[in-house]
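Sample 1 of the test manifest.
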Amino acid sequence: MPVANSRRAIQNRQHIAITGLTALTALLFGLPVLLGLIGIILPASGYFPALGRTHFSGDAARHFLATPGLGLASWLSLKTGLMASAVSLAGCFVILVAFSGSRMMLRLRHLLGPLVAVPHSTIAVGLVFLLAPSGWLMRLVSPALTGLEQPPTWGLVPDPYGLVLILGLVAKELPFLLLLGLSAAVSLPLARLLAIGAGLGYGRFASWVFLVLPLIYRQIRLPVIAVLVFSLSVVDMALLLAPSLPPPLAILVLNGFHDADLATRLPASFGAIWQIGLVLVALLLWWNGERLVGAIVRFCRWRGWRGQSADPWLGFLLLFAILPMLIGVMGLVAALLWSFAKGWFFPAALPASVSLLHWQDVASYLPLIINSGLLAISATFLAVGVVFLWLYHGQDLIQRNRLLQAAIYLPLLVPQISFLFGLQIGLSWAGIDGSWPALIYIHMIFILPYIWLVLAPAFAQMDWRHDHVASSLGLGPLRRFLSVHLPLFAMPIAAALFIGFAVSIALYLPTVFVGGGRIATITVEAVSLATNGSRGPAGVAAMLQLLIPLACYAAIWLFLKYRFGRFATMQGGGLT
Amino acid sequence: MQKIRFYHAARRIFTGLCLAFAVTSANADDFTDLQKAAKGQTVYFNAWGGDAKINSYISWAGQILADRHDITLVHVKLTDTASAVSRILAEKAAGRENDGSIDLLWVNGENFAAMKRAGLLQDRPWVTSLPNWRYTDSKALPAILSDFAEPTNGKESPWGRAQLVFSYDSARLLTPPKSAAALADYIAANPGRFTFPQPPDFIGMSFLKQILIELSNGDSALYQPVDETNFDAVTAPLWHWLDTAKPNLWRAGNAYPANYPVLRQLLGDGEIDIAIAFNPADASAAIARGELPNSVRTYIHDGGTLANVHFLAIPFNASAPEAAKLVANFMLSPEAQVKKADTAIWGDPTVLSMPKLSDAQRMAFTKLPRGIATLSDADLGRTLAEPHPSWVPRLEAAWIKRYASGQ
């Protein structure tokens, strides 16, 4: 029948068009990174016409490799990055095991938002202020217990081993992984898994380790890798917490990009590639670590370990998992105090006088807050929109095609300092650096992988029978999407929106490079103030920065409560 | 036509900006054209943004420029001036010859020298044709024409002066050490109580240059381009001084603060006894903000301390060069300079020449309160000239090799 044939042809064509669109959008996400890498590889191989270098040579590489302290710097980065990621993941697991399903978890959840959204530098400033010899902890016990009128000359921050940097990173990354771990746990049949574990005679700890955590890890593996890559190349936090003689690799590279001698851009570009090499080494080690841990777990299971004796230790482990977060929170409290302090000198435990001095020009921050908010909201909603397009029209395509997957995840897997300088040249060449569309686009590519990770499992587990019922009642696709799918997805969408806002608000280096300084956000301001040692104004900026995610959090929560309150039990995406 | 000119002249007198009397009529016409072109433009002013005082001064200037000239001044707050130079370079690499992202840059020293070398500045000199240039006197202050011995060629407009000043808490330290040698003795006697910002930080490098100039009695080689054959010999006293001091520095020289605000914070926290700044009024301003105790005072070394001038430059590809020139001109006006010199606002010394001002303008400067910890002009009198800019990268590399490579 020709009519049916032509209809099928049209459908086919539509299908091809949509598939093509899906693939194209996915590839577009890898483009900035590729562009950025080209902009690094050329100068690294000696080609940089703006400085009159038009011949390829190995000079840049030779120069960079001769950097004094390169070996130690690389080792420091590798060590702190791996340790911070491993500790963050372990802490996240311990908290999940200990608190899952309890009231404590609900309370903890409220803490996660602010900790995820606050920039690394704010936590770092708080940490320095806590742990320095003249810091808050010392002030609390001086001179009463120590007899000290003047701070001791020994000091912990920064320590030569990078331990404080690890602590700072864990304080930031653990809450982030926990937030994602919680949303992954929601999509699992937790009660059933734990019942099976109990039926097999496993203790709580063992049930989780054998049955639940492997499933959660599978879902958050990518963010864990992203945390690893980020920790290996962190800049703002390392400036305050890491040893500086030599500094971690990323700072060494950034110094090259920021040197007054413009020719150092070439060796620095090679350093950016070296940084990628270091990431690959770390990934290899991590991958082997995964296999080792997997083997140990399998061995324990094979030996019939029931783990009942491990449960009492959980509280002890929990202490170590909570501690970094508590330190992060204390850092925020210190920032709050400093924003109102005038004259707070050692050994006073509290500011000598409270003043609104630093809050005077709070109105001047308003445009920055608006910029941050606009950026976060538009990038996040766009990302959610794109993810829905993919879920409805190309989920299989993306999950089958490794190239598309790599394109989506690339921005998280390549260290930021390795492609941002090149990207800056690329955007500048296209004449769109410092423009809103470019910045929203770049924020979106950093947000989107997380949103994909939250929404894709929820989508896969959706109970399509609801859809069929609605369809049989005569509802069109759009009505079904609006009145059936959206309510079913309400919880995962809320989680995705919040993670999107939080990631966007905390994004620092990409905003600086792509915003071209023309679009200033509250985060850029907060980092600038924090690294320039003005605790009062930095405290104000940190507090204002927290406003946005808190407001979003409250808005999402209220919306869910009033709009979908009656569906509150459908968190798993089904009615079971 | 006559009417328009009269109107503009009247407005200039009214604003006290550029006054028709002494300026040649050709200049005035150029400037009128400039004002017309600048109307409605947005100037992206890239300036270090780590100090709330400076930031609010810049927003004050922006307010006035908006009211009088319909110019929007956007302060792009940098953490590091070199990052802006880097961005201009990226634009040049991308072939962006106009409509660049930076219109005006706060700069001096090696960053200026690097921009000049790489051709990142406006092609044609523009500074001496600014109407307010007539308030400066390059004979009395030659540094406005040569930035760290690098001729400015009219491509950067002076904005303010800086001098290296030490601050200390007079409640803890009675007689501060006023020379490189005395400082060495002080460090040996008080372990852990002195440090400086880690090179390549600007103030850290300035401290190294200060010590080197003092120890070598101002060796004339320092004012020539670096000569590799005698670099070791010229700098030997500095390395000896640092080697001796290192074990008794803060954290035994195993860590250094990142920049001078962090150093100032250490003084406020009582972790160190002496801090360094490149602004004579910095300590007074910090006391007013409650960041340093009231008992902090400042001093300079007996042989004088490094002094230089900081400038405003316009990149080759600025999108609003006319408005940027107008901003630079306003920043050079007695009105803006007196505001900037006020310790309560910023406390940055003026680049203008007092004899060239009217009585009323001069009065405005002399009436300014000095600030509790700020030295008098007479006490600040002894200055040392900046070495040739080629010494900075060379010293920086040598310091890093010796102290920052972990070997």
